């Protein structure tokens, strides 16, 4: 029941925020402001409120004590990973810089990324992964939340069964593993924002099949879909799949080393280790 209640509350707030951000139609101050308001003032507060009401505990996975460093840490990892993907694609002439883009477009894309990434992390890692893990263990939670995350992208423009599976494996597994290793949502939130912003806001490629204004760079992509991801964008490429799998493996190794892989229903309160650091 708590899973359903939490999903309903967060999803309802997310839908309202998404409608507002979409209505802004890439107006820079409106998209940035509404994106930030949706992410910070609405979604995070709604998540914290419903978790307290249904679980009667502090929301340690969103502890403000380490929010800044953890967000920055995740952002750097996510942006760096996507940059590595693009460099590899460009090495085989799949990605070409066509010229300078737009700073205002990059700012608008950042606002959009804030709302979208916080929404997805709260739903798929904060609610689904965390609650399923508490009942069925880390591996079941990782597989289920990853598959649902990939499935949620199947209706995107240019999406295919392959692209949905790629998102499930490269992003769903990586972000779930990041939460398992750190027990804070700030790291996967930052990682997700960094990846998406680098994808659209810096390198000017489509994000999960969706376009938008030019980022800091204007680009063209050409070549086989296995290299470039086709119309879905680089997230459908084998390079993105490899980067996500490698990062997921590192986070899972860290989770195992720290004793945070739960084989069965946890006997301790959910999220009790949420404030732990990545360097513990």
UniProtKB/TrEMBL annotation:
The keyword DNA repair does not apply. Keywords: Membrane, Signal, Transmembrane, Transmembrane helix. The chain crosses the membrane at residues 30-50, 71-91, 103-124, 136-155, 237-255. Residues 106-197 form the CAAX prenyl protease 2/Lysostaphin resistance protein A-like domain. The keyword Transmembrane helix applies. Residues 1-23 form the signal peptide. Pfam families: Rce1-like (PF02517). InterPro entries: Rce1/LyrA-like_dom (IPR003675). PANTHER family: MEMBRANE-ASSOCIATED PROTEASE-RELATED (PTHR39430), PROTEASE (PTHR39430:SF1). This is Lysostaphin resistance A-like protein. It comes from Dactylosporangium vinaceum. The lineage of its organism: Bacteria, Bacillati, Actinomycetota, Actinomycetes, Micromonosporales.
């Amino acid at each position: 029941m708590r899973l359903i209640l939490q999903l309903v509350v967060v999803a309802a707030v997310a839908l309202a925020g998404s409608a507002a951000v979409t209505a802004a139609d890439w107006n820079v101050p409106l998209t940035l402001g509404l994106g930030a308001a949706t992410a910070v003032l609405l979604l995070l507060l709604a998540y914290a409120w419903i978790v307290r009401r249904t679980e009667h505990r502090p929301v340690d996975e969103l502890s403000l004590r380490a929010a800044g460093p953890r967000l920055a840490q995740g952002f750097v990892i996510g942006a760096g990973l996507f940059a590595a993907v693009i460099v590899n694609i460009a090495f085989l002439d799949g990605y070409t810089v066509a010229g300078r883009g737009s700073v205002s477009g990059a700012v608008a894309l950042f606002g959009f990324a804030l709302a979208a990434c916080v929404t997805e992390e709260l739903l798929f890692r904060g609610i689904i992964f965390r609650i399923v893990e508490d009942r069925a263990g880390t591996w079941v939670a990782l597989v289920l939340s990853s598959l649902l995350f990939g499935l949620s992208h199947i209706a995107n423009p240019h999406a295919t069964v392959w692209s949905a599976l790629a998102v499930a494996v490269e992003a769903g597994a990586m972000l779930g593993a990041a939460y398992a290793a750190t027990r804070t949502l700030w790291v996967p939130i930052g990682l997700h924002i960094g990846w998406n912003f680098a994808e659209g806001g810096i390198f000017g490629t489509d994000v999960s099949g969706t376009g938008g204004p030019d980022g800091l760079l204007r680009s063209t992509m050409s070549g086989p879909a296995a290299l470039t991801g086709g119309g879905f964008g680089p997230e459908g490429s084998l390079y993105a799949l490899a980067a996500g799998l490698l990062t997921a493996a590192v986070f899972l190794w860290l989770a195992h080393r720290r004793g945070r892989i739960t084989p069965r229903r946890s006997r301790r309160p959910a999220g009790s280790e949420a404030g732990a650091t990545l360097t513990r």
